[in-house]
Write a structure and sequence with these properties.
heterodimer, A: 301 residues, mainly alpha, disordered N terminus, B: 314 residues, 12 helices, globular
């Protein structure tokens, strides 16, 4: 009897591992079964690679002014022309991809960490703590996101890190609400009660048992938010409140080019195409992740 | 019903109270000395003193907050430091412009979005559906400010059909006003049309799958009747929520459009206030926008009960 037990256990572990690998395989197969998701994933990968190897592929130094080449239209040397300081627009777009991606991902991570923690605390402890967190979250949600982000710009100022914090704060209420309701629905289940009776601490229960059970909707929300966040960053930079010169960001490029629409429309319009392309692909990738992970979420989120 | 409304009203008031407090706290979160930040630091000691007392800086935060709130409730939001005028007066001048554009955009985008959504849901899988869905998916990702610049380039600079910027009320100059509003309105409406289309389509598809629709079909009702009477009624419920969100968000969304087309509305006012660190003006703008969107939320909630009796329990 005891021998059988010993031989079963490693088997069970191997089975569990195989099961996980199988599930992962299923996830990716489901994810890429739709062509549009596959294409989006490839485009996003290309943009990420461009951002990583920006310095290797850009034709010119994005920050080096060349007074003689100011405001040129597209040509063989400067494919997308030059800006008002003679800097190569294509190179600035290439380096600008970094800002968009970093801010997009960082802001969503910040929003997720703060929001999930607060939501979990609110749902788990309930009572007064829940009231305070929920009401403040509701108050923050009432202010339109753009307006909130703009107002926070006055407090934090621009720059990549500050931008991420600002957009993180303005995105976090979604996670608070979601986690709170998740916790409320899980909290009363038997296995949580069993865990509590075993003497697990609240923190351990939340992190080890409640959080893993709510991970799907969190991942779905995160993937769906990145696109919108990049759009917000571009918008704030466009207004002159986000990333400021000389750092190139797609939003500031669109804004910088609008004075030169007649001489070189590409300067202003091309970065916008990049923003749109990236956001469209990220969003359809997010939809794909949602459908592959849990089709039931389709209606909810 | 009255209890429901009262409950939501009191909730809204509580939320607004918190919003106003958070808004007020902005001053204390500002890096460095707020007065120095506001004026750029180049002022005499005398002006500093005057501003110091004008902003009640000598009192603790809570006292200052209540003084400000008391003023705000009576329509006094303080003096703008950059415009040298009463904040309430400036806002009163700017609000109608934004509301006018936002409402127009809203009125355009709701029926169009619903119609497109129904078409693509009913003809699911057809070429029309693919076109509509694809266009909607692309349109809701386009940066509004870029769209504005694109329109400006094409219609104002290349084709010369429309003036590139500015704003005039219709009663002042009808022709010019119409010409000037076309581009901003398109920019504001496109995102709304796209997202309402998407929502209508997905909730329509959800509803069509349900049993009572099958029942309606199997008892021999015409397809049109099933779609437009039985399905649409329920499919529009989530659309109402989205409409509320869109309307509340439109004021925020107009920031970009107002910036691109140089329209003197709330959005451009807010951006001006931020860039010139005009604290009373920032507070006034944020508070007003929050009030607007929470009133819209409240109305959405109430409308919801009227159209969906199932919610009354709550």
């Amino acid at each position: 009897m005891s021998q059988a037990n010993v031989s079963v256990e490693p088997n069970a572990k191997a089975l569990l591992k195989a099961n996980k690998a199988k599930k992962r395989k299923q996830f990716f197969r489901a994810l890429f079964s739709r062509k549009i998701v596959l294409v989006s994933a490839i485009i996003v990968m290309i943009i990420i690679l461009v951002a990583v190897f920006a310095y290797q592929i850009m034709p010119f130094d994005p920050n080096k002014p060349a007074v003689r080449d100011r405001n040129q239209g597209p040509s063989a040397t400067h494919l997308l022309g030059t800006d008002e300081f003679g800097r190569d627009v294509l190179s600035r777009i290439i380096i600008g991809s970094r800002v968009s991606l970093i801010v997009g991902v960082l802001a969503v991570i910040i929003a997720c960490v703060i929001g999930t923690t607060l939501g979990m605390i609110a749902g788990y402890f309930g009572g007064f703590v829940d009231d305070v967190i929920s009401r403040v979250a509701e108050a923050v949600r009432v202010i339109p996101q753009v307006v909130l982000a703009i107002a926070l710009c006055a407090v934090f100022g621009g720059g990549i890190l500050n931008m991420s914090i600002i957009l993180g704060i303005s995105n976090m209420t979604v996670y608070i609400r979601m986690m709170r309701s998740q916790v409320l629905s899980i909290k009363e289940r038997d296995y949580i009660m069993a865990g509590r009776l075993q003497g697990n601490s609240s923190a351990r229960l939340m992190l080890r048992h409640i959080l893993p059970n709510s991970i799907s909707p969190i991942i779905v929300t995160m993937t769906q938010q990145i696109g919108g966040t990049i759009l917000s960053e571009a918008g704030l930079s466009f207004l002159g409140l986000g990333i400021s010169t000389p750092t190139a960001s797609w939003g500031t490029l669109v804004s910088g080019g609008r004075a030169y629409l007649l001489t070189n429309p590409v300067y202003s319009l091309a970065p916008g195409v990049c923003i749109a392309l990236l956001v469209i692909c990220l969003n359809s990738l997010g939809d794909g992740v949602r459908d592959a992970l849990d089709p039931r979420l389709r209606g909810e989120l | 019903m009255a209890r429901y409304i009262l409950q939501h009203l009191s909730q809204t008031l509580l939320v607004l109270l918190i919003v106003s407090f958070l808004t007020y706290l902005l001053v204390d979160f500002l890096p460095g000395d707020p007065i120095a930040a506001m004026t750029g630091g180049e002022i005499s000691g005398e002006t500093y003193e005057r501003l110091y007392y004008e902003l009640n800086m000598d009192k603790p935060v809570l006292v200052r907050y209540f003084l400000w709130l008391k003023g705000a409730l009576t329509g006094d939001l303080g003096m703008s430091q950059s415009y040298h005028r009463r904040v309430a007066d400036i806002i009163a001048e700017r609000v109608p412009v934004t509301i006018y554009l936002s409402l127009l955009a809203f009125v355009i985008s709701v029926p169009l979005g619903i119609i497109f959504g129904i078409i693509s849901a009913v003809k699911r899988g057809s070429a029309a559906d693919t076109t509509v869905t694809l266009t909607a998916n692309v349109c809701c990702c386009l940066p509004q400010f870029w769209l504005g610049i694109l329109f400006m380039y094409v219609f104002a600079m290349k084709l010369g059909w429309l003036p590139s910027s500015g704003f005039v009320w219709p009663h002042e100059n009808l022709g010019l006003s119409i010409k000037q509003t076309i581009m901003p309105l398109l920019c504001l409406a496109i995102g709304g049309i796209a997202s309402i289309t998407r929502q209508t389509r997905s909730s329509m598809l959800e509803v069509i799958r349900q049993d009572y629709i099958r029942t309606a079909r199997s008892k021999g009702l015409k397809n049109k009747k099933v779609i437009y009477i039985h399905a649409l009624k329920n499919a529009l419920l989530p659309v109402i929520t989205l409409m509320g969100l869109r309307l509340g968000g439109l004021v925020g969304g107009s920031v970009f459009v107002e910036n691109v087309f140089v329209i003197p509305g709330m959005g451009s006012l807010l951006v001006n206030a931020i860039t010139s660190v005009d604290i009373p003006l920032i507070q006034g703008c944020v508070l007003l926008i929050a009030v607007f969107s929470s009133v819209v939320n409240l109305i959405t909630d109430i409308v919801y009960v009227y159209v969906d009796p199932r919610i009354k329990v709550a």
